[in-house]
Amino acid sequence: MFSHVPLLGWLLGAAIAVSLEHFLGTSLALALGLPKIPVLFGFVIMLKKPVLIPGAILYVLLIYFLSIGVTARLSASPANRLAAKLLSLPPWFSVAVHLGLLYATLHMWSGMSAYRVITLKLTLIAVMVTLSLNVINGYMGEFSCSHPGFMALGAYGASVFTVVLFVNDRLFGPSLLPAALAPFMFPVALIVGGMVAALGALAIAIPSFKTRGDYLAIISLAFMFIVKSMIENLEVVGGPRGLSSQPDCANLPTVFLWTVACVWIINNFVRSTLGKALNAVRDEETAASAMTVNTRRTKMVAFLFGAFWAGVAGGLFAHVLRYVNPSTFGIQKLAEVLAMVYFGGLNSVYGSIVGAVGLSLLSEALRPLEILKWIIIPLLLILLMIFRPTGLIAFKEFNVKNLIAPKQKREEEM
Amino acid sequence: MALLRVEKMGHDFGGLRAVNNYNLEVESTQVRGLIGPNGAGKTTVFDLISGIYSPTEGSIVLDGKSIVGLQPHQIAAMGLGRTFQNLRLWRHMTVLEHVKMARYSKISYGLIGAFFGTPRRKREEEEIEEKARGLLDLMGIGRFADQVVVNLPYGAQRRVELARALATEPKILFLDEPTAGMNPEELVQMMEIIRLIHKELGLSIFLIEHRMKMVMELCEIVQALVFGEVIAEGTPEEIQNDSKVIDAYLGREAVH
Predict the structure, then answer these.
(1) Which residues in chain B are closer than 8 Å to A263, comparing Cβ atoms?
(2) CB of B182 within 8 A of CB of B208?
(3) Angle at A310 between CA A217 and CA A14, to 5 degrees
(4) Is A371 exposed, middle or buried (0-12, 13-18, 19+ CB in 10 A)?
(5) How do residues A44-84 score in pLDDT, each as one tens digit?
(6) A255-270: pLDDT as tens digits
(7) In the beta sheet, which residues pair with residue B24?
(8) H-helix or E-strand containing B206?
(9) B116-139 mean pLDDT
(10) Given an 8 Å threshold on Cβ–Cβ distance, is A287 in contact with B50?
């Protein structure tokens, strides 16, 4: 029934659902006996006050499912024609239209409350972190545990950069440049953060890629703890109290654009023959080197590349919260990121997006359950590992061209 | 001058002498064979020359340059292609990706191209794809191009390995038991393919083989290796009638 709806149709449906919520949400929520619009698809309300469950379910069905379904179904053929027309133009244009529509939807959805904005930003950052770890653990097939460490390096690198330059701070003194320049220099700050993380990665990569085996897992785990305790003891950046007063540069469009850039560049890389060399090294290293693949260089590049994006994500994270402290980047963060990678699926950009978005939202939705949340989520992971050991969507290529192409009705459905 | 010249090569695994005083000279477009019982060190000889192990002593000169101590990928890029006794394919990759991967050292678009998908990368990827498809057609497995390699029948997997080795544009090709585990029909096909690539591409070939039929039909000169030492070298006929080879490897018909 929905098999011939192109991506454009779904995005259109989502946009309409969100506008409906924008204009009618409050009155519908009140009519259904809810105190206000359910912020996160009704989960929080349902878990807090079981009496409101029917109302919340009805709200979600009416606002999201019904309107998305109806729009997608009705707009299928015009959307297909539009997608076909877009496809005849340069590909970047069609991609830009899709992304624009996606962004508009997200913007309007998150515009309803500050809580949605922060959840959305953190989810997008989780996508970046998950994807960058998937490059190492999935595509390259080595087990690295140092991602929180890279995030910390990126977060502190970028924060120090912006705070020194643009903020009158008690740690670093008066600002060197006018604060109005901060948004323009913010990309530089993130790249600096990424570079600092990549530099840290180099320290792991040099000793651990001489041989294969479990060395990387052990060294990278140690590295994570070293980074954490190093920052805790570094009074210059605030020590265990953390570093605050980052300029407010990480608004939603910025985070969205960086996430898109991250997905685009990583996807480009893993689909090139140079990037596929990672798979060759993972599956059969001897054969890879006999086929002229420089295995050591391949591994180093991928590891530094993954660390760079974790650093960028860390920089964004610091500027979204406008506060970082070293205890954020500990073993719990590691468990979270690893869970997202393995939940979504190894060796797959789709998988990382699904894993990061799914687990971020799930963990927000289950927040009212407090401690029970940490029983439910691991339980889900165990079940997943039993029934789908490689994750939800593993080993699937993320082909943008196929994604945005119009969908034809299949013969048997006619 | 010989294309590949190995002199006095020796190798120890700990206290075990795996290869001793090994000498080899392969002229261009020559087909040479290496036979010997299991555990004689045939694959070790391959691994030593192709750089997987570094020989304890001796010299190896490929096309006028010494390759002792170089990394396997460097040696491969200098024109030594090889296959493996136990197929070493990349189990998550398609047939086409296998052959494209072997062009790794000739890719010039660099990381910038890989990250940003520049037009140059697009052009180059298309070029190597075209070459790869040509090789797959030559091997008669063009129809499998977009399949994941583990789904292929065994004989076809062997050909993928061969196509992959050829894609590195070798001057000399090392084949480690190319017909291991094949049925008679596949064996004949494989022999045809080896003949074809020898003729079409003008390669030197050095092969390890257990089946005397293959050796007799393909090789110009054969070495017999026993306990890491060459005990005889000559034309296939000479080898077959050499009493030391018969004792150590081929066996006598029981005469009572």
Answers:
(1) none
(2) no
(3) 120
(4) exposed
(5) 777 778 888 888 888 888 888 888 988 888 888 888 888 88
(6) 999 999 999 999 999 9
(7) B6
(8) strand B204-208
(9) 94
(10) no
How confident is the model over B25-62, as pLDDT tens digits?
999 899 999 999 888 999 999 999 999 999 999 999 99
Contact B125 A272 (CB under 8 A): yes
pLDDT of residue B254: 54
Cβ neighbors of B159 (< 8 A, separation 6 or more) are B139, B140, B141, B190, B193
Tell me which residue of B187, B244, B209, B202 sits closest to B32, measured CA to CA.
B209
The amino acid sitting at A44 is: V
Q: A275 to chain B: which residues are within 8 Å by CB?
A: 114
**Cβ neighbours of B123 (radius 10 Å):** 11
Domains, chain B, with CATH or none: 1-79+170-256 (3.40.50.300), 89-156 (no CATH)
Which of A268, A276, A293 lies at the smallest CB-CB distance from B116?
A: A268
Give residue-wise pLDDT tens across range A121-142. 999 999 999 999 999 999 999 9
A139, with CB counted inside 10 A (0-12, 13-18, 19+), is buried
Burial status of residue B202 (CB atoms within 10 A of its CB: 0-12, 13-18, 19 or more): exposed
Task: For chain A, list residues whose CB is within 8 angstroms of any CB belonging to chain B.
Answer: 265, 268-269, 272-277, 279-280, 283-284, 286-295, 301, 347, 395
Structure tokens at A34: 């809810």
Which residues of chain B are within 8 Å of residue A277 when distances are taken between CB atoms? 101, 104
Residue matched to tokens 């006598």: B252
Provide the percentage of residues in chain B whose pLDDT is more than 90. 76
Q: Which two tokens stand for residue A366?
A: 């289950």
Taking the C-alpha atoms of residue A12 and residue B112, their distance in angstroms, rounded to an integer, is: 35
Confidence at residue A15, expressed as pLDDT on a 0 to 100 scale: 92
Q: What is the ipTM of this complex?
A: 0.91
Token reading at A326: 């070293």
* Residue in the block written with tokens 């805790």: A232
Question: Of B147, B151, B214, which is closest to residue B186 (Cα–Cα)?
Answer: B214
> Measuring CA to CA, how many Å separate B250 from each of A147, B40, B225, B255?
58, 14, 12, 15
Separation CA A25–CA A38 (nearest Å): 9
Contacts with B143 (C-beta within 8 Å, 6 or more apart), sequence order: none
DSSP string, A251-309: -HHHHHHHHHHHHHHHHHHHHSHHHHHHHHHHH-HHHHHHTT--HHHHHHHHHHHHHHH
Counting Cβ atoms within 10 Å, is residue B66 exposed (0-12), middle (13-18) or buried (19+)? exposed
Q: Please report which helix (H) or strand (E) contains residue B82, including its range.
A: strand B80-82
